[in-house]
């Protein structure tokens, strides 16, 4: 576990903190202000629980059963029961990083002082995170409204010492055993606490935050591979001139064009479009790369804005309003703001994959590649070169197009029509994760084809940009081979994917250009 510590206070958290806890194993600590806020809100809940008037979530049933007033003697059972009954997920286990993000973000809302749980409940959640215990959460069970109910319920079940969880060694065992091994006492839930542990957008938000981090890397990587393809196709970099993009001032477009121009600085391959198979303009997939990549970048910026707002939110129902001394029902658990952005990002990921694949296909087609051998093969006919690598890339693009169909336009009524409109934000988040993985593979195939094509140009006596040479050198050092006779291709493609996904591509370029945008 990383010894870096993230302090959880009353004012929300940052995307960087979410990634640190979810992916890097950062420790979590409650601030003194958070503990005070938790205690103050709990006093309000206790006072309301002592009154004869029913208060939703404190002394009533839940959802369509909210009309029943629950007597004090049954309220602890009520809170246990909501966790047990709502832990009804099915399907494959959700990834460890998603569960850690979900728990951390729920802890963030608990610490806001608007949920009414006791400080010890929040501390137990922090202790479970710090012990590296990860509740078993299943793929299906959230409609993205009333929060990510089933996923959060499985996490709450672990806090109670029930159900199953994954230990630090990756072995799934009874949660009670894991808590005991780490000296963690299971929580005994009181009024409102079970409900407060379940009612948030934390799963979809955690997946949005991590997708944004991954897509930032992939969009910079796609600027680079587009530049390499432009080089390999002997295209012109004049279309990247800042003055051209200034007259259509979409911020992302200017950034992508600027990145491509910096990658191509010093290239001896650009500008030959009139020498070999003369053409006035490059194809759209080459010439319009900044426009497409840039529009996606602007979508990421909107996604970050929504994520930052949600990270500053306290999402629960009902919420405690300490200044007024009351508990109030609300609809802030509805996942629509997050769901829309998750769907939007799946659309731009699909389109980035689409334009990327078109450049790859152009590199492999001898009728459009301006002098490159068919399929970049060593001895075309005997060798098939990268023919089937493009098939794989095309299959991935087709998959991303299917994943771009929005989840948030769907709604299935639940809870006897009490919850009659839902966001499906969890579903939008799950398909976006699949799309991001596919996009990394699509970019990797273009990288593999473009570097091979550039090396073939080098063999012709042309000199690529210094940044391009740095990419080729780093890629070969990562185990991805260059041009030559046919060989088992899958390991090369897998290594190229890791090189893209883990930041090797961006790092290689930045060693020459300095930080890209």
Automatic annotation (TrEMBL):
Catalysed conversion reaction: L-histidine = trans-urocanate + NH4(+)
Pathway: Amino-acid degradation; L-histidine degradation into L-glutamate; N-formimidoyl-L-glutamate from L-histidine: step 1/3
Domain of life per record: Bacteria
Pfam families in the record: Lyase_aromatic
SUPFAM superfamilies named among the record's database cross-references: L-aspartase-like
Subcellular locations according to the entry: Cytoplasm
Cross-link (5-imidazolinone (Ala-Gly)): 145-147
Keyword Transmembrane helix in annotation: no
Any GO molecular function: histidine ammonia-lyase activity
UniProt GO cellular component terms: cytoplasm
Biological processes, Gene Ontology terms: cinnamic acid biosynthetic process; L-histidine catabolic process to glutamate and formamide; L-histidine catabolic process to glutamate and formate; protein homotetramerization
PROSITE patterns (UniProt xref): PAL_HISTIDASE
E.C. numbers: 4.3.1.3
Keywords: Cytoplasm, Histidine metabolism, Lyase
Residues bearing the modification 2,3-didehydroalanine (Ser): 146
Principal cellular location given in the protein's record: cytoplasm
Post-translational modifications reported in the UniProt record: Contains an active site 4-methylidene-imidazol-5-one (MIO), which is formed autocatalytically by cyclization and dehydration of residues Cys-Ser-Gly.
PANTHER family for this protein: HISTIDINE AMMONIA-LYASE
Family statement drawn from the similarity comment of this UniProt entry: Belongs to the PAL/histidase family.
The protein's name: Histidine ammonia-lyase
């Amino acid at each position: 576990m990383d010894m870096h510590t993230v302090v959880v206070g009353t004012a929300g958290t940052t995307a960087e903190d979410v990634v640190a806890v979810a992916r890097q194993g950062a420790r979590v600590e409650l601030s003194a202000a958070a503990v005070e806020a938790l205690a103050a809100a709990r006093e309000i809940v206790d006072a309301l629980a002592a009154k004869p008037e029913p208060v939703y979530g404190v002394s009533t049933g839940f959802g369509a059963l909210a009309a029943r007033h629950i007597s004090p003697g049954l309220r602890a059972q009520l809170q246990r029961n909501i966790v047990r009954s709502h832990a009804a997920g099915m399907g494959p286990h959700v990834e460890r990083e998603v569960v850690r993000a979900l728990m951390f973000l729920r802890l963030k809302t608990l610490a806001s002082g608007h949920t009414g749980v006791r400080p010890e409940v929040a501390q137990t959640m922090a202790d479970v995170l710090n012990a590296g215990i990860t509740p078993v959460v299943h793929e299906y069970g959230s409609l993205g409204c009333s929060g990510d109910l089933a996923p959060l319920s499985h996490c709450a079940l672990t806090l109670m010492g029930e159900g199953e969880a994954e230990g630090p060694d990756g072995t799934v065992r009874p949660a009670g055993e894991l808590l005991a091994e780490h000296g963690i006492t299971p929580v005994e839930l009181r009024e409102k606490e079970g409900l407060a542990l379940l009612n948030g957008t934390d799963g979809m938000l955690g997946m949005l935050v991590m997708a944004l981090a991954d897509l930032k890397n992939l969009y910079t990587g796609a600027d680079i591979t587009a530049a390499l393809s432009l080089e390999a196709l002997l295209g012109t970099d004049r279309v990247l001139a800042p003055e051209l993009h200034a007259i259509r001032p979409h911020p992302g477009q200017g950034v992508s064009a600027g990145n491509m121009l910096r990658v191509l600085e010093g290239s001896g391959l650009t500008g030959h479009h009139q020498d070999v198979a003369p053409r006035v303009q490059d194809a759209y997939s080459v010439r319009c790369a900044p426009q497409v990549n840039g529009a996606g970048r602007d979508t990421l910026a909107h996604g970050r804005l929504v994520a930052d707002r949600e990270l500053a939110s306290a999402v629960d129902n009902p919420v405690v309003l300490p200044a007024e001394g009351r508990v109030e029902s609300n609809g802030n658990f509805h996942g629509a703001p997050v769901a829309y952005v998750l769907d939007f990002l799946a659309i731009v990921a699909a389109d980035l994959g689409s334009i990327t694949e078109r450049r790859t296909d152009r590199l492999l087609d001898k009728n459009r590649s301006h002098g490159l051998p068919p399929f970049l093969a060593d001895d075309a006919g005997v060798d098939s070169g990268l023919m089937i690598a493009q098939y794989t890339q095309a299959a991935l693009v087709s998959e991303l197009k299917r994943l771009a169909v929005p989840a948030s336009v769907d709604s299935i009524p639940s809870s006897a029509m009490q919850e009659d409109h839902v966001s499906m934000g969890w579903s939008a988040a799950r398909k976006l994760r699949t799309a991001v993985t596919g996009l990394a593979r699509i970019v990797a195939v273009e990288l593999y084809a473009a570097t091979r094509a550039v090396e073939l140009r080098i063999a012709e006596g042309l000199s690529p940009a210094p940044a391009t040479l740095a990419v080729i050198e780093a890629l070969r050092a990562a185990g991805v081979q260059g041009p030559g006779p046919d060989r088992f291709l899958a390991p090369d493609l897998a290594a190229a994917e890791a090189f893209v996904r883990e930041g090797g591509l961006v790092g290689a370029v930045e060693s020459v250009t300095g930080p890209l945008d």
